[in-house]
Amino acid sequence: MANKVTVSAPGKLILSGEHSVVYGYPALLTAIGRRCWVKAEQITKPEIKINDQQFGTETISLPKLKQFAHKAQKAWEEFDRTNQIARLRFIKEDALGLAKLALAEALDQVKKPTGLRVAIRSEIPIGSGMGSSAALAIALIAAILKLHTGRFDREQINRSAFEVEKKIHGRPSGGDNTIVTFGGVMKFQRGKDPEAISVNDEATGPYWIIQTGKPEESTGEMVSRVRRRKEAPATRAKIKAILQALGKVTERFIIAFQNSDKASLNQLVGENERLLEQLGVVSAATKRLIRELEKRGVVAKVCGAGGVKEKSGVVLVLPAGERKASNRLENLETLAIAINQKGVSFETA
Ligand code: PMV
């Protein structure tokens, strides 16, 4: 068995259906052309050396790693009982908290865990709705399982990553880890098998994103915010209707996507954004930006959990008709995004 392996996993975008996917409605997700890379190597010393290009370096013993994971599990159970997402804050406050949980989750499934040296590098903006946490968890889990067992079982990787995602986001839908594991473009709905959506080139773009900046709120906080409003007597009926409408918009979006129907896609992105605004996940500054774009004939929507205090993560942009987005968005930080990319994969045997 090789004692070294390199794995990469893609980021993701939610083309339609964020938030409503948490309540059982469908979402359309795509793996994107920005990836997270993990190099892992077995070492004789019984310790784990983590080196993350962005988040620093730490060496931790196996028992300490297990302790951290145990504490996170207890905190999640408390969160599940109380709905207080702050219980999970200590995990994010540890710069390598996510990496440690993913490593512990994978090592928990192998008979004889060995020492490890792990190097992490990511091209995916952190905490901006592009699946950075799922990509890191999946690349790490895939690398560690492959090193110890020689196997590469996507179902197992996906299940394990979902356990890690729960400690980071509270009650995620599972969409992020599933698209990052399997890749492509996918209709994801809780409780159903994910459905691969075939991509007709004409439907695929150009897709652009604008970076409004990392939201102050985490995904878990935004999901909890919607849940509170969904449960509060004063807002219950309104939120339920918005979630249902988001589900319908997504169903129509998937059909328009499959038919390369750009006019409908444009209209649906606009409708989707209005519903997300009513749901209360878009900041005033981001709404102003999107109104400004609309005046210039460009439709856009928040992509991912959003943010209300100031920034809202990335905004997906569809240019109207055949006009080029780049000419209209010259003063903004825009990025062309390749969709329909491969899921987690090995670079070396
Ligand atoms: O912002 P992101 O990439 O973490 O996406 C969150 C998507 C939500 O639908 C809001 C939550 C979820 O778990 O699906």
Q: How would a textbook summarize the main sheet?
A: 8 strands, mixed
- What's the overall geometry? globular
Specify Rg, calculated over alpha carbons. 20 Å
Distance between the termini: 9 Å
**How many helical stretches?**
11
Number of strands: 12
Unreliable spans: none
Give the cofactors and ligands.
(3R)-3-hydroxy-3-methyl-5-(phosphonooxy)pentanoic acid
Tell me the β content.
15-25%
What does this structure look like?
By secondary structure, the protein is an alpha+beta fold. 43% of the residues lie in helices and 22% in strands. The protein has helices at 62-82, 89-93, 97-107, 132-149, 154-169, 175-182, 219-231, 236-258, 262-279, 284-295, 325-328, and strands spanning 4-16, 27-43, 47-52, 56-61, 115-122, 185-188, 195-196, 208-211, 298-302, 314-319, 334-336, 345-346. Strands 1, 2, 3, 4, 5, 6, 7 and 12 form an 8-stranded mixed β-sheet that branches. Helix 3 packs parallel to helix 4, helix 3 (97-107) runs antiparallel to helix 5 (154-169) and helix 7 crosses helix 8. The longest helix is centred in the C-terminal third of the chain and has 23 residues, at 236-258. The structure holds (3R)-3-hydroxy-3-methyl-5-(phosphonooxy)pentanoic acid. (3R)-3-hydroxy-3-methyl-5-(phosphonooxy)pentanoic acid binds at residues 14, 18-19, 21-22, 129, 131, 169, 172-173, 175-176, 219, 223, 304-305.
SSE map:
Elements: E1 4-16, E2 27-43, E3 47-52, E4 56-61, H1 62-82, H2 89-93, H3 97-107, E5 115-122, H4 132-149, H5 154-169, H6 175-182, E6 185-188, E7 195-196, E8 208-211, H7 219-231, H8 236-258, H9 262-279, H10 284-295, E9 298-302, E10 314-319, H11 325-328, E11 334-336, E12 345-346
Parallel strand pairs: 3-5
Antiparallel strand pairs: 1-2, 1-12, 2-5, 2-6, 3-4, 6-7, 8-10, 8-11, 9-10
Helix pairs in contact: 1-3, 3-4, 3-5, 4-5, 4-6, 5-6, 7-8, 8-9
The protein binds (3R)-3-hydroxy-3-methyl-5-(phosphonooxy)pentanoic acid (PMV).
